[in-house]
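Sequence in, structure out. Go.
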Amino acid sequence: MLQAVRDRRLEIVVSWKLAEEIAQVLRRPWLGRYGVTERDIRSALELLAPQLPSVEVDPPIRDPSDAPVVSTALAAAAEAIVTGDKDFLADDTLLAWLRERGIAVWTAAELVRRLA
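Output:
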């Protein structure tokens, strides 16, 4: 997948809320073994900042904490959300709502197949 990003066949999009969540996850103690510092996190956010959209929607979603993912996909006019989250994959109402807006939901395996 990294090569697909380098080749510009795959574009990764992030929003402020998702960037905040990424920063929180990177601060978890058990991830300390990878040597990610607060400076690394701040540098990544500074690099991302100019491209981060801020869009709020109220999608029909089981887990409200997943709404920023949907908002980001809408703001970026994404082709798909790639996830293993069952709240996305098994929620027919959400899937239909996203389809109406031109956004698919794929697993990582589906993305890899499409990139092959």
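Check: The mean pLDDT is 81. The first strand starts at residue 80 and ends at 82.
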